[in-house]
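Slide 14.
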Amino acid sequence: MRPTENIEKLLKNINIDTNVKTDNAVLGDVIEAFEKSKKQKSTLTEPNIWRIIMKSRITKLAAAAVIVLAVVFSMTIFDKSMPTAYAFEQTIQASHSVQYLHIRAITLSHEDQPVEFWVEFAQDGQPKNMRLNLPDWMAPGSGPREVIWKDGKKQEWLREKNILTTTEDEASAAQILKMIENLDPKLAVTRLQEKQEQGKVELEINEPTDKAEPIIVTATSTKEDDSSFQRMVLYIDQATRLVNAIEFYKLRNGEYEHMKTMEFYDYNQPVDAKMFMFKDVSNDAEHIDLMNIGLVQGDLSDEEIAVEVVRQFFEALIARNYDDASKLFPGVPADEIKEMFGEINIIRIISMGKPILHSETNHLRVPFEVEVEMEGKKSLWKKQGPYVQHLAGQPDRWAIGGF
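Slide 15: predicted structure.
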């Protein structure tokens, strides 16, 4: 039954000495007031109704009081039935209290090998500790890697190669903080809010009546936006207003293709302190300080330094200087470089192609063609090439990450 019908029923049941003409006139005034009040904000509803009623020529005190109470009661019930609409500010506010977070990043092309993160935030909301588990596909040839950032020090454990690398400087800390910033769901929502205000994304919000179902926010980039992904779909828990997952889509051939998903777990579930330390590094593990390896970029562009790294790497192989080659391929000792390339007699470099940006990892692959000799026979060795990247924590140094 509509609120206006409730009012009419209450009026007709009131035991007040009035006539039909009076009743109908009062009812008409009140219904008119109610209909007008629906167009106003709830905080102004009662004054508006009262003001309209008082303008009526018929103002019997008893009848007006009963009807006003009926209207107020109906409006109260009506207002309570309407849930508060979702807004990004709710998620931003809820996220301020988050101290622990577990994240899984699933790339659809490697769905069975997710990247996992554990983050602990300090009381001021700044990242305090982080653990990162990287599968083999992120750095082919290096095997799975585990990274821990704690007290400003970054350590990376290549378990299969028995190598532990350490970096401790401001640049390394800045890189880790940037990585965590890109993972933080609160900041993802904040960036979307800013893009909406700038007209760079269009939002569609679906808030189901079933409170067990998530709120779904679809953010689609406009032509003015230059995002890596043209659509993001956020799944937000209705009870906590925290983000459960974010899906990322690229626009290809007129269709939005699902590329990866970020899943968020264990909000404020304390992470065991042992997660932020390596307990099983063997005594004979090779320890490498990353401050003295790679190639300094200087004034070269990203593409130019990537080509130069690969060029110098092959020149070192041609000279059979495996120590220098190892410095350009961090994490791979000189004797392993020799084992990998020693049987191939690289005679000369034929060409270096234009670097290709890998969309999933942001590495630059450098195609190459070299002349080699094996068992007395010369041939051309042509491949898409190794991928080259910034050295962790050293934005001005580049090195080979894998073949």
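Speaker note: Confidence is low (pLDDT under 50) at residues 41-47, 69-82.
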